[in-house]
Every structure is written in structure tokens, then in C-alpha cells.
Specification:
Length: 110
């Protein structure tokens, strides 16, 4: 995030959308005026100084899990176990450790 805050106009990152092999592909973006980032991990303390606005979608975990599983099924992905053994516990642990609701500038409730 430091280079972007200092004015860099390109961003390169590894993206993963292959849930079978978990292989990543390098993606390079040319930045315009605004950069919108998505991800619960953005509320890490070390990243907060780089974020001008933090929006938290306050959705109950059970609802978010059901929606995520439905999206995965619509894409033909069977990852039912991952939602309960990996993603839900990670979401709970992150919320306890970093309190994203309290760190958001904007809180959107469902």
C-alpha cells in the first residue's frame, strides 16, 4: 500500500480464483483516481493509515455464509466444508482481534 499512497499508478498482485488448485495469477492494474479494495483483511491495524474510507457491511455470519455457499454452488464449486471449517472460524477470529465494526467510517446494516 505504501507505493500507492506515495503516488504509484500501477498495482500488481496475485489473484486466485481457482479453488481446486489454489494457483494464483499475476494481475496488473493501472490506477485512476480511486481504488476500491474489498476484503475483511483490510482492517488490519497496519493498513488503516492507507485507507481514506472504511465501509463495513454488517451482515450476520450465518447470512454471509449462506450467500457465499450459494455463490459457490452457482459456479459449480463444492466447498461446503471450507465455509464451516476455514472461512467461518477465520471471520470470527478476525472480528474478535480487529473489531472492524468499530473501525469503519461507514457501517451498513442488512
Amino acid at each position: 500500500m505504501g507505493p500507492i499512497a506515495a503516488g504509484a499508478r500501477t498495482l500488481t498482485y496475485d489473484s486466485c480464483d481457482d479453488w481446486d488448485s489454489w494457483q494464483t495469477a499475476s494481475v496488473t492494474l493501472t490506477l485512476d483516481r480511486h481504488l476500491i479494495l474489498e476484503g475483511v483483511g483490510l482492517f488490519l491495524s497496519a493498513l488503516l493509515p492507507y485507507l481514506n474510507w472504511r465501509l463495513w457491511l454488517d451482515v450476520p455470519l450465518a447470512v454471509a455464509t449462506a450467500r457465499g455457499k450459494a455463490r459457490a454452488r452457482a459456479l459449480g464449486r463444492e466447498v461446503e466444508d471450507l465455509w464451516h471449517t476455514v472461512w467461518e472460524p477465520n471471520e470470527r477470529a478476525f472480528a474478535c482481534a480487529f473489531q472492524p465494526r468499530g473501525r469503519a467510517h461507514i457501517l451498513v446494516r442488512s
